[in-house]
Amino acid sequence: MPALVLLGAQWGDEGKGKATDLLGGSVDYVVRYQGGNNAGHTVVVGDQKYALHLLPSGILSPGCTPVIGNGVVVDPAVLLSELSGLQARGVDTSKLLISGNAHLITPYHQTLDKVTERFLGKRKIGTTGRGIGPAYADKINRVGIRVQDLFDESILRQKVEAALNDKNQVLVKIFNRRAISAEKVVEEYLGYAEQIRDYVADTTLVLNRALDEDKVVLLEGGQGTLLDVDHGTYPFVTSSNPTSGGACTGSGIGPTRISRTIGILKAYTTRVGAGPFPTELFDEDGEKLRIIGGERGVTTGRDRRCGWFDAVIARYATRVNGLTDFFLTKLDVLTGWEEIPVCVAYEIDGQRVEELPYSQTDFHHAKPVYETLPGWNEDITKAKSFDDLPKNAKAYVKALEEMSGAPISAIGVGPGRDETIQINPFI
Ligand code: GDP
Ligand code: IMO
Ligand code: MG
């Protein structure tokens, strides 16, 4: 059985955690391939709610091996506290595997993330402040610290000292902050080594062997397509590739082994942090979406910006990810509107534009062109099949499918595992 990718089709928080958890019972491995603890994935199992940041959502499925792939940036303190939090709730975390090639987030990355944002002032990205950007910058700059470095004290010391040489100059002379002691960082990180050692593995080898044996591997994205450093709304993006290409590089699984790429798509749109968002609402409807949808960040507690569904973005996600299916989430949140506007194109400087403009300036000027679809009032949270949905909800889903360029194979009608309408099986 080949591998599947599950990723965010908008600006993150589409409901990837729920979708991954739903598939967790039918797959053998769930792999995070990029990002770090900037992610916040909510999983609701019965009356239990879990917020996962770094660990793959498959960790809640007993038969599934969770994997942190080489493309992830790992904050070891967060890792250990997330693990102990789950263990205290009776979750078996012993199967976790972590790539030795994954990079580590260190205290200086977090400090740099925060001071850089502060200095950007009004131009700030609105990052999660978790050190994600600076950790990836070090990786690309070839001065990063990897998980495997924890097990060689002299390499760890050399690398931390080298990295802090120039970073301390920047911190002290530019940002007016105190220098960070290399020795303290080394001491702290050596303290994590033994707690992490048993989880560390050659995950690329493990995953490819698993695929050879017909096991099912699910690659779980963090963030979303429009936050991708290459394909997103740069510079208002994260510093990794949540898009499907990132699933290959971040796991060491080749593209020929991936059979299905599922885009998680919210029935409306949200965004956290700064950056363009054509369908953003500043009125009562936006407030209503935020309240009914519970749109508050799992990681930072910030209110999410809310707006109507944007089909231009959905089409773009289909294109840059090669999506085979969509999982449409949070349809239940739209219950109760008389009419629901959907953005079908943009107007930019008087011209109608059907595709996402590649120019940042154009995208900043994009105004949504709406079509209005009739709403519904019936409670849909108990719907089990597509036919259980009211006529107008069905028409809404069909219209979104038509505009988005890939079949909608599942629909979320509530946060719980069983609050899902499966139209086509994913596996
Ligand atoms: P992720 O980052 O993509 O995993 O998404 P988040 O967990 O940050 O945000 C999605 C939120 O929507 C969470 O609170 C989920 O429990 C919730 N959720 C997911 N699917 C549905 C759905 O179909 N209906 C409703 N009402 N809530 C959902
Ligand atoms: P999940 O996986 C929504 C946003 C931040 C900021 C930008 C850069 O839960 O969907 P970073 O800390 O990554 O350098 O911040 O990206 N961001 C997210 N927005 N969901 C996420 O993750 C996000 N992870 C980062 O708000 O705008
Ligand atoms: Mg989230």
Automatic annotation (TrEMBL):
Residues bound to GTP: 12-18, 40-42, 304, 330-332, 412-414
Gene Ontology molecular-function annotations: adenylosuccinate synthase activity
Keyword Membrane listed: no
EC numbers for this chain: 6.3.4.4
Annotated metabolic or biological route of this protein: Purine metabolism; AMP biosynthesis via de novo pathway; AMP from IMP: step 1/2
Gene3D superfamilies for this protein: Adenylosuccinate Synthetase, subunit A, domain 1, Adenylosuccinate Synthetase, subunit A, domain 2, Adenylosuccinate Synthetase, subunit A, domain 3
Catalytic residues (UniProt): D13, H41, K139
Positions annotated to bind substrate: V298, T299, T300, G301, R302, D303, R304
Localisation per UniProt entry: Cytoplasm
Binding of Mg(2+), residues: D13, G40
Database matches in SUPFAM superfamilies: P-loop containing nucleoside triphosphate hydrolases (SSF52540)
Cofactor(s) required for function per UniProt: Mg(2+)
Main location: cytoplasm
Quaternary state and interactors: Homodimer.
Family annotation (HAMAP family): Adenylosucc_synth
Family of this protein: Belongs to the adenylosuccinate synthetase family.
Protein name: Adenylosuccinate synthetase
Lineage of origin: Bacteria, Bacillati, Actinomycetota, Actinomycetes, Kitasatosporales
Gene for this chain: purA
